[in-house]
Batch of 2 targets.
Target 1
Amino acid sequence: MKYTAALAVVIVAGLSGAAFAEPSVEILDQAGAILEVDQPVERIASVYGLGTYYLYALGVSDRLVGAGYVGVKSVAQASETMRRLEPRLEELFLFGDPNVEEILRRDPQLVLADGSRHAAFSAQMNDLGIPTIQYLVESSDALLEAMRMTGLALGPDALDRAEAFVREFERIRTTIAEAVARLDEADCVRVLFLGTAPLQAATGEMFQTELIEAAGGRSVSAGLIGYWSEVNLEQILLWNPDVIVIPPYGPVQPADLLEDPDWASIGAVQVGRVHRMPRLMAPMDTPVPESLLGILWLSSVFYPDLVSLDLRAEADRFYERFYGLTLTEQELDRLTAR
């Protein structure tokens, strides 16, 4: 079901005795469930590793009582930037399939969950009287909807920040779109986005393909369906991409392709246009707030002289504004590396 702001929230004032009870908001989540969330929400558990970052961007991370983080399988694996962002990481950290007893022990008023993986868990939590918002985010528009929905659930200040994020995302997306619109179709780079193995490609149904298109590229594997499709080298040779992008997770490195004679006849390899995305915290190729920087980074790789936005300045501004972090020069160097 498509989420719309008009259906998302109804303020309900209940009368209890002689005094008004706290208001609640009625949320239509991205799985189509209607939830009533008592206000204010002061304790949140997130078993949705993408959604955890929404809470930081909305300025409510101090309300977390437990959280999973996309791409982080252990506290020891967390980056120094992540540890600076969240000094309570060891206390909050959750990993693996959500455990009802563990979540109840943390006593949340609200839970964030993955609508595609956590349906049974969400039903259990809702039955126990703990509203659980389910997210289905595999596009930029769904990300913006998710930010607004989360802001609505968490109060006026969070909603204001959600709207500020939407404006920022649209500013960057529109600026890049206007710049790449001047390209002829023949001049658009043809891109292969790999997975955690060299013969694994992003499909046309995945967020990575949308990011490529938003940055002005054309995904050579857009005709594939599903989630991370296995391909063979012969198919990649037929595609003959101009640029190959490796995600910021998994073991694959540019040298694995650039130094492999089996890949030597591919156009992107011949000219050295094999790039691994950088990462400070959440991977920018996933539907997290940082994905707006992912679009900008990709455009800088595809068309270094075409887009007027400065990636370094935009990254510095983004992390300061939405995460309250002043990045070091070394962190900015890593984030803007190609």
Target 2
Amino acid sequence: MGNTALAIETAVDILKAGKSPLLLGPPGCGKTSEMSEGGLIHAAMAEHHGVSPEEYGHCDIRPCTMDVSDYRGYPFPNKETKTTEFFVPDFLPTDGYGLISIEELMNAPRAHWHAVYQLVEERRIGDYFVPDGWSIASTGNRVEDGCGVSSPPNALINRHMIVNWRPDQKDWEKWANNHDIDYRVVAATRWRPDLIESYDGKIKGPQSTGRSVTAFAKVFKTSGVNPSSEKSAMGLRIFRQAAGALGDDDAGLMSSFLSIFSRLPDVDKIAKGMGEDVAVPVEMDVQIATLAQLVRMSTSSNIGGILSWVDKCSPTMKVIFGYDIEQDVLETGARHTSNFTEWRAANSSLFA
């Protein structure tokens, strides 16, 4: 379990207790997506309330795009009582179960924080009350992230329980493997975890985050560029695709790694069970790329020959390969074979 998974677990614990977490972390690390429909926090709270994720609602509130008066609603006169009443905003829930996400709270104008005080602490705004089945959580960037955040008042912090959200490559990889992210891009982040985990608020312009790597991966896949080609123009095209999302430095790392797929050892020979004389690459990045390719090629019929070659690799590389086969993203059935089961048992000490 990585840092991201631990943050999710902590946020869910806080929400189950009826309190409000404030998820603080760099941009692009998945805070919002995990609270939205399809996210792990959203799904965990749906299970907690005994409803399906489809039935469990989600209300997205973004103070940066709102007027303060939007929270309380539109005033109208009641002629009978000679008082002013308010229409409840239609974005606020009135029944059922769900999660209210107050997004980018730390960038909100100060006037909005007072409305959030009451919403989070008293679960109401004016005459509106949050239904019992709804939980409240907030997200925000940190001052050091360079996102225009100013130091929030202690009163705002005190009404939340802080959850420090630190991106983790292993947790992002699990997500990526289930969301059709190109396996070669995933392998690049395994080689350089800082593509997911490091964020420098002093950098002006794009840099790599989980969100920007995902954006590049979608462009890369749609373009149909083949990094296994030896043409230098292909590498330049990949660099241009990556630079717009990751910045020049990280784009150089990404395109450099992807170019490795043009100089792998004879993976076809390995897959055919004839890899005895195929040497294990010396460079770790080439090893990682080779294993990523072999995982992609593994089937129930050729896994035995592939495992014979993997046995020549270092213990670390064996763990990487075994982990990827166990994920079985492509549903090839390789992990259910006796070959893999026996290999996994023989190397059980590596997976302890």
